[in-house]
Amino acid sequence: MALLLAASGAPAAAQSATGEPVEAPSSIGPLSVETVASGLHSPWGLAFLPDGRMLVTERPGQLRIVSRSGTVSAPVAGVPPVLARGQGGLLDVARAPDFADSRLVFLTYAEPREGAAGTSVARGQLVEQNGDARLDNVEVIFRQSPAASGGNHFGSRLVFARDGTLFVTLGDRASLRDQAQNLTNHIGKVVRIAPDGSVPADNPFRQQNGARPEIWSYGHRNVQGAALDPATGLLWTIEHGARGGDELNRPEAGKNYGWPVITYGRDYSGAKIGEGTEKAGLEQPVKYWDPSFAPSGLAFYTGTLMPQWKGDLFTGGLAGARLVRLKLDPARQSIAQEEILLADLGERLRDVRQGPDGALWLLTDDPSNGRLLRLAPAE
Fold it and tell me: Do the domain assignments include residue 186?
């Protein structure tokens, strides 16, 4: 349900069908779960504009602008065509660090290519006139190679590093999983590019003959969550395993994270994957989960609205239908505590972000009634 603005300018509390506020328990007391917008079609990515409005992608191919009061715009014009099949479609969205001047918006999506598809990154300038919005000067700045048939494992999160470079997570496309170990392609990789798509001079494989120079790390399955640690500036990612084997990683330049040679999961048939759980030269995850909860979205909390959680990581669960809080150890090397939140909500959570108001904002994954939720302490 769209919400009216209270006199203070903050959204009024969402209410359930019975008229009562929706509350959820947590380690810091009851939380208020507010429905800011609903009726979204498989929402996937969320990014905040400087004025507090939100960019929301819908997997069928629409980019929307959602006001602070919950009004959902008509589709933003100029979005590139997408292959909306299986897990593919319009996926993540991010605004440029210099958005106030450049107006640049970045999108990842499953790009149709001659009977196949691959994850691509496009950017364009957001122009708003007379109540309408469009992307101008749209250009594709990166294309995952090779393309593949099928509609699975596109990866697709976007994270700007402190130096202005852009991390992009790329799935193994399922059918090409063995290629996650091959440096001559972009399958199952995290790549790092400049905002114009060029290759940073200090990328780890730029000087290696035959290797794709965009590659930052490799041996990944399907990374659907990524975030920059505000304390260290380091990238963290979370990726889907098969039956078990979801992984939280801290990808470092040039390192191999093992898939599909090592994994803590098994194939959907129950068959063994690869050689086991460890092998020399291959990195171990910071944490793994078995059984899998299918993590999607990743955010560090830095706000003051819930100070007890400052510095913690949050990720959504799809098959697991939950929000997971991960408290890091003091050295920020491992996970000291895990808390499961919103399990009673029973909804697939696709993305999680911290808003400028200090609340956590979530997207629920539903083909016709996806919701934008605001999570904050109950009053």
Answer: yes
- Give the sign of the dihedral formed by CA 80, CA 83, CA 89, CA 91: negative
Q: d(Cα 358, Cα 104) in Å, to the nearest integer? A: 24
Q: Is 81 within a domain?
A: yes
Is there a domain that residue 14 lies in? no
C-alpha distance across the termini of the chain, in Å: 20
pLDDT tens sequence across 243-275: 999 999 999 999 999 999 999 999 999 999 999
CA distance 89 to 42: 10
Q: What is the pTM of this model?
A: 0.94
Round to whole Å and give the CA distance between 254 and 213.
11
Angle at 354 between CA 97 and CA 124, to 5 degrees: 35
Gap between the Cα atoms of 56 and 37, Å rounded: 11
Active-site residues: which are they? 153
pLDDT digits (tens, 9 = 90+) for 343-363: 999 999 999 999 999 999 999
CATH number at residue 328: 2.120.10.30
Q: How far is CA 154 from CA 38, 52, 273, 274, 345, in A?
A: 25, 29, 20, 21, 27
From the list 336, 338, 373, the residue with the least C-alpha distance to 355 is 373
The confidence score (pLDDT) of residue 13 equals 37
| Secondary structure letter of residue 168 according to DSSP | E
Q: How many CB atoms lie within 10 A of CB 130?
A: 4
Note the pLDDT tens digit of each residue in 41-51.
Answer: 999 999 999 99
